[in-house]
Amino acid sequence: SIGRSGGRVAILGATGSIGTATLDVIAALRRHDPERDWRAWSISGHSRIDSLGKLAAGSDPVPGTIVVSDPERETSARSTLKTHQLHASCRLDFGPEALVRAATDASVDTVVAAIVGRAGLESTLEAVRAGKRVGLANKETLVVAGPVVTQAALESGSVLLPIDSEHSAIYQCLAEARSLAKTTGDDNANSPCDRRFSQKYPGVRRLILTASGGPFRGWTVDQMRDATPAQALNHPTWDMGQKITIDSATMMNKALEIIEAKWLFDVPHDRIEVVVHPQSIIHSLVEFDDGSVIAQLSPPDMRLPIQYALTYPERLPCPAPPLDRGNFWEMTLSPADHERFPALTLGFEVAQMGGTAGVVVNGANEAAVPLFLAGKIRFTDIAELCRETLRSHHHESQPTLTRLLELDTWSREYAAKLAVKLVV
Ligand code: NAD
Ligand code: MG
């Protein structure tokens, strides 16, 4: 069980789409829930230092620490931040270690992990080790180091609350099942993981992730082969950072989410499903043993899952708009197409393999996305490079963190080398 959180929040990746939404949520909580004195205790940014200064100056109260995670920018950032006339008590800290200091600061109650990609790993892991409440937007951390992060959470008592909307939805739908957790698992379970799942979530049959399908939902493979970065960046329902927007177009985002669900809920891969739901109103569903399905609905706005991670188990008024029932709203569900979106199959395979599979596919994908954006590879090459890199690696089921980090580097280099051989 988990108690009420305090109101001091470290926002790692504050300049991003999730980071700025988090600041918005905190400003509203400060009004609705004055007792807890909600505030951004520290905020970080990597490159857009002017935005970082604006965010700090616009926060009430001004954060105690501003972290510039790119060490190369220390000198320029000092002079940029000076122009924002921040309060004298506002401390500046630099480099990746500063992210870890912010994440483990004894004054901080909750860490919002909103850095994109594997770069968020160390700070998120250290927040977990320090026993913080962690609002996890940075899904790549679980994909890369799921076994290490979940073990660390067990040891420290840290609670990982998903910010990813699908996982937040599932977390919300599982509330009752969680309260029914048993001391022993189902004897008929077909694997140790299956037995643990039946023990933690009695009566739950499947977790069903919804996918918007992205901008290429109706496209043929031939059309996708010629898709441009501008077309891929044009997401129909969500306004997000570049990397996750491309991941949504390839459906690699859903693959990462399948793997994220595996680690977050300790769920066997064959109890996860994906359905396409273009309106992004149903954020995910849970099916129970009696066939009943419970879903979580709200308009596509990340401020809701962010706030839920901050205030859980309580619910408070949120700046995200409620569903507008005065208009027609259509909701459709359809099966996901693994033929046109091979990343999906990859996601299930990686969830089944566990161990080193996640880091390798994530590394290849993180290498491939910028290559696509730079016009060096085709859209359809992204999933291809991930598949090929996974195939070429030697799988281990119980890797150490050091091994995972080595494979992170290896997979990026391997995918980049493969990419050179491709002719655009
Ligand atoms: P974004 O690109 O808008 O922001 C990324 C943040 O990370 C920025 O603050 C940037 O300064 C920081 N950053 C980038 N590189 C860094 C590095 N090397 N070291 C330290 N910091 C670095 O991304 P986003 O859309 O806000 O996504 C953030 C995370 O949340 C991702 O893992 C994404 O998958 C996840 N997520 C986002 C959404 C969404 O709606 N945007 C939804 C679900 C999950
Ligand atoms: Mg999501």
TrEMBL record:
Residues the record lists as binding NADPH: 15-18, 138, 140, 241
Protein name as annotated: 1-deoxy-D-xylulose 5-phosphate reductoisomerase
Domain 1-deoxy-D-xylulose 5-phosphate reductoisomerase C-terminal span(s) in chain numbering: 160-265
Q: Name one GO molecular function term.
A: isomerase activity
Q: In which pathway does it act?
A: Isoprenoid biosynthesis; isopentenyl diphosphate biosynthesis via DXP pathway; isopentenyl diphosphate from 1-deoxy-D-xylulose 5-phosphate: step 1/6
**Chain ranges of the DXP reductoisomerase C-terminal domain:** 297-414
Example GO BP: isopentenyl diphosphate biosynthetic process, methylerythritol 4-phosphate pathway involved in terpenoid biosynthetic process
Ranges where the 1-deoxy-D-xylulose 5-phosphate reductoisomerase N-terminal domain occurs: 9-146
